[in-house]
């Protein structure tokens, strides 16, 4: 994962200090790009332990078109909890519950979860129902029928619904690109455009998530998973993550793991337990607070 570390180093050395929506402050650099070839291994950051269980559950949640955190909470994935909790704190039902108490209510009270666990029309809604269009199903069918199309695009940025989202999409659109392979199956590649990239905490998740998406779509379309190209707009390190980023840069990357999906029949039927990471070597976790 030298590519990721190169971006991290570039932002630390060449970024500018910039204020942000959360009030935390960032070191920011505009417009970066990194390329990860899945034929060389699965791009899961190795210079700290990454919570890949959360990444995989989140992606399956997107694919299912779900926008309520209950599925994630039930599977002990807490990466989205802060946003609905902040909304709950502004409601008439709020009675000084802590975040942990809020999460427990989501887990144990379905009516409460239905009322306060929804994030609005975020990623899953847009992928599966963008103004009535199931973009994910459409693009898979299009890759199968017309693999060399230049229109293989899915957008999560829906201006008509941005105001209803707990958090507007950071990873805004992705495009597939098929290349011919005279020695066997053709190769499927993907490019993500991410408008806002939390480089220390979020980007390792984003890399692994879209690499897994590429792998699953390639399986669905009987293609080889090739390159994930990650293009980012406002690429930033929060000021309270600077020391953690420096620590990570002091470490030497390990060999990349492999990924496999057991009993694959369809991307829409994959379960978490079907996904296997093989030979993941990593350094100790490095903690950082999420900026909300």
Q: In words, what does this structure look like?
A:
This protein is globular. It is built from 10 helices and 8 strands. Helix 1 crosses helix 10. The mean pLDDT is 96. The strands form 2 sheets. The chain has a 6-stranded mixed sheet. It folds into 2 domains: 2-67 and 122-278, Thymidylate Synthase, Chain A, CATH 3.30.572.10; 69-118, no CATH class. It is α+β, with helices and mostly antiparallel strands. 34% of the residues lie in helices and 21% in strands. It catalyses: dUMP + (6R)-5,10-methylene-5,6,7,8-tetrahydrofolate = 7,8-dihydrofolate + dTMP. Pathway: Pyrimidine metabolism; dTTP biosynthesis. One of its GO terms (biological process) is methylation. Its EC number is 2.1.1.45. Keywords: Cytoplasm, Methyltransferase, Nucleotide biosynthesis, Transferase.
Any low-confidence stretches, pLDDT <50, length ≥5? none
What would you give as the CATH superfamily of the largest domain?
A: Thymidylate synthase/dCMP hydroxymethylase domain
**Structure class:** alpha+beta
Number of domains: 2
Helix content: 25-40%
Oligomer: single chain
Number of helical elements: 10
Which CATH class of the largest domain? Alpha Beta
> Alpha-carbon distance between the termini?
27 Å
Main β-sheet: number of strands, strand sense, barrel status? 6 strands, mixed
Reading side by side through the largest sheet, how are the strands ordered?
1-2-6-5-4-3
What is the total tally of β strands?
8
Average pLDDT rating: 96
CATH architecture of the largest domain: 2-Layer Sandwich
Q: Which radius of gyration do the C-alpha atoms yield?
A: 19 Å
For this structure, the CATH topology of the largest domain is Thymidylate Synthase, Chain A
The secondary-structure element order is HEEHHHHHHHEEEHEHEE
Shape: globular
Strand content: 15-25%
Pathway: Pyrimidine metabolism; dTTP biosynthesis
EC number: 2.1.1.45
GO molecular function, one term: thymidylate synthase activity
Family: Belongs to the thymidylate synthase family. Bacterial-type ThyA subfamily.
């Amino acid at each position: 994962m030298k590519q990721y570390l190169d971006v991290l180093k570039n932002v630390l050395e060449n970024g500018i200090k910039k204020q942000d929506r959360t009030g935390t402050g960032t070191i920011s650099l505009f417009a970066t790009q990194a390329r990860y070839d899945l034929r060389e291994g699965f791009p899961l950051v190795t210079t700290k332990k990454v919570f890949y269980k959360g990444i995989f559950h989140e992606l399956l949640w997107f694919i299912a078109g779900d926008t309520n955190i209950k599925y994630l909470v039930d599977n002990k994935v807490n990466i989205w909890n802060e946003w609905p909790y902040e909304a709950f704190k502004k409601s008439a039902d709020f009675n000084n519950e802590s975040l942990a108490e809020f999460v427990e209510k989501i887990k144990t009270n379905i009516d409460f979860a239905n009322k306060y666990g929804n994030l609005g029309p975020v990623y899953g809604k847009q992928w599966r129902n963008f103004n009535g269009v199931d973009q994910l199903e459409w693009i898979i069918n299009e890759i199968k029928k017309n693999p060399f199309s230049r229109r293989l695009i899915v957008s999560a940025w829906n201006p008509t619904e941005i105001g209803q989202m707990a958090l507007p999409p950071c990873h805004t659109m992705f495009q597939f690109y098929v290349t011919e392979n005279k020695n066997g199956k053709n190769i499927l590649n993907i490019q993500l455009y991410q408008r806002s990239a939390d480089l220390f905490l979020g980007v390792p998740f984003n890399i692994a998530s879209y690499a897994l998406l590429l792998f699953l779509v390639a399986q669905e379309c009987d293609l080889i998973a090739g390159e994930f190209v990650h293009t980012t707009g406002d690429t930033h390190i929060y000021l309270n993550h600077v020391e953690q980023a420096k620590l990570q840069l002091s470490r030497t990357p390990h060999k990349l793991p492999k990924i496999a999906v057991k009993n694959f029949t369809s991307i829409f039927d994959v379960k978490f337990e079907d996904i296997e990471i093989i030979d993941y070597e990593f350094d100790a976790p490095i903690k950082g607070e999420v900026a909300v």
